Amino acid sequence: MAKIEDLKEEAKKLLREGKVKYIIGYGVGGNGWTAVPVFIKKPEDVDGLIWDPTCVHNLARFLVDEKRRKAKEKQPDARPVGIIVKGCDSRAIVVLLQEKFIDRKDVYILGVSCEKAGVVDDKKLAKKLKEKKPKKIELGDNGQFIIDTDGGKVEVPVEELLAERCLECKANFPVIYDVLSGDKTKRAVDKPFGSLEKIEALSSEERWNFWRAELEKCIRCYACRSVCPMCYCDECVVDSINMAVAADTSAEEKAQKIKWIQRSSESSENFVYHLVRAIHLGGRCIDCGECERACPLDIPLRFLNKKLEKEAKDLFGYEAGFDSSLPALISCFKDDDPEDFIR
Amino acid sequence: MEKILSKKALPQWVKTLTSYKVYFPKKDKDERWNYAEIDHEDINLAFLNTTLPPKKLLFPQKELFLEFAKTADGDQETLEVKEILPDEQPVVIFGVRPCDARAAWLLDKVFAGEFTDPYYWKRRNQTTLVGLACDTPPWENCFCLSVEGSPCSEEGLDILLTDLGDKYFVKSLTEKGATLIRAGKKVFQNPKPEDQKRAQAVQAESVKKIKRQLKDARAISSTLKRMFDSPLWDEESMSCIRCGICTYLCPSCHCFDINDELESASPLKGNRVRTWDTCQFPDFTMHSSGHNPRPEKASRLRQRLCHKFQYFVETYDKFQCVGCGRCISLCPVGIDIIKVLEKVNQHGT
């Protein structure tokens, strides 16, 4: 059983000995029971760390902020940052390493295994509990979540509350770490791409209508992009200033800037945004599901990314996030590549 | 004007509003509430609150300002510019929560004054807001009482409905509201004195149900003034992912951008549009020179809070936050405006 206490000891030691700058982990949020990202700088604050099935966030996203901050420091602190990662989050770190966005010495990875569970989907939880308000949620010993509510304790089999991506998780323990809490027990996954079946079964016209209805809801708050650890581009195609404007950029250059996408949130523009993002994540997405969770309008973005994950697997036998020594899928070329259109 | 409307008679009232485009809260397949044009099948107001506030109908995410097109006749080139105003169409929105209506009342101040925004006011003047007092807080993070609102506040509304079980207590607040009631006059009854008492009791009870509280909001305004350079902003914004949820879903946030969007570059043809923008995006303050006065997310979180609790108070003597709680409930990383402002108060004193 993964114990946060083990990680807390390690975290305290790291901070006391000054081996890390700070530790990115989970603490209790304002509502008193769900996790929020916290940044611990002092050993005495380590006790605020928690680990429970509400730790949904992929904290690897904050390594992007850290890198940007560091780049601006005049005398950068070369020490690594400590980070608590689940299986999916660790795969994000692997991709960031593969792409040389971060260096292995920049991170001290405190891995925690989801064991035979994962994180809860708050919508499934709310549906299950109906009027009852949850106060705390824990993983029990017999494949169940134990939820403390204002109407007493409720036990629910994990499968009924797990986030969809956890139900399809291929490795529910960290694949890269410096210390690990919990066992590397794999949960059997019958259909790793099962969630795609219902959308793949649709005709192309039905699919078009499905996506048109979904993407019309988009308000372009860019939460899906902003929460994603892989969306680290300095210039994003959707931003109104999407070229590096400097003091010496001429008016002509600015005027000639190509506008790939209009600001109006209407169907055509929303399609461009979401498809550009999906394609940029092909062979890179590690299915942490954060984009879909963050979306305030419940656009099922995981379908897009999961489909491309399946393509990478079927066409190239590639799975993102498992081996940091491999080149990234979209930046490697093999001489024995059977596809003769690339020559 | 005060009336009684039985819940069964609500659809009848709506049916009389033939000249209006009528919006009701509707549950979508994801179980989220959203204001949608009615289909006359399922008219009821048993809802909590919508994810997107009614702001989307008064200040839409995209507003067309004008259309332009260049035509060439030999050497003679003409640029035609046609101003577009919102369509002439009376609108009524049912089930507006009092906080969201207060937000519209704040937007009224922003879009008037030195310059009266014709697009906003065209929509605002032709829209009737039928409010529904909250008998239970729609979100667990509701805190309207702390920002000078209440679950039954009337600012910004044309009519306020209070749920009395099998009927509504209907209070008309403006001429627009009275017109709407006159349209369906046969379906209303006159209230008895006990109805009035019951409505007051329901409203008094609902006030007690608001759990979250921001203490001394007025004091925070002056504290914020001293906190501009505080390290608190860095700490509190560490987990911010710089998305636009808190502002786009805010009923009172109103920042916008104006762009010429081309349909064709040659011959030149396109539209000038106003779209929502947000202080939370890094490019919001980007200067043409490349300089960005708010380059860090700390300065952007500070901007959001100071605008709502300091600058707006200085200009209009009102908070620019109505306590709907959307930004708290929907933040992907749990940034809680109440908690941050409480810390402001602690740091500042």
Give a topology summary:
The complex is a heterodimer of chains A (343) and B (349).
Chain A: H1 4-16, E1 23-28, E2 35-40, H2 61-72, E3 81-85, H3 87-98, E4 107-112, H4 122-129, E5 134-139, E6 144-149, E7 152-157, H5 158-161, H6 164-167, E8 179-181, H7 197-200, H8 204-216, H9 223-226, H10 251-255, H11 267-280, H12 290-294, H13 302-316
Parallel strand pairs in A: 1-3, 3-4, 4-8
Antiparallel strand pairs in A: 1-2, 5-6, 6-7
Chain B: E1 2-6, H1 10-15, E2 21-27, E3 33-37, H2 55-58, E4 62-73, E5 76-83, E6 91-96, H3 98-110, H4 118-125, E7 127-132, E8 159-163, E9 167-172, H5 175-183, E10 188-189, H6 193-208, H7 217-225, H8 232-237, H9 245-248, E11 256-264, E12 269-276, H10 297-316, H11 326-329, H12 337-348
Parallel strand pairs in B: 2-6, 6-7, 7-8
Antiparallel strand pairs in B: 1-9, 1-10, 2-3, 4-5, 4-12, 8-9, 11-12
State the separation between the terminal residues of chain B, measured CA to CA: 47 Å
Q: Beta fraction of the residues of chain B?
A: 15-25%
Proportion of residues in helical segments of chain B: 25-40%
Shape of chain A: globular
**Cα-atom radius of gyration of chain A:** 21 Å
What number is the mean pLDDT of chain B?
94
Structure annotation, total helices of chain A: 13
Helix fraction of chain A, binned, reads 25-40%
Low-confidence spans of chain B: none
* Strand arrangement in the largest pleated sheet of chain B: 3-2-6-7-8-9-1-10
- Domain unit count of chain B: 1
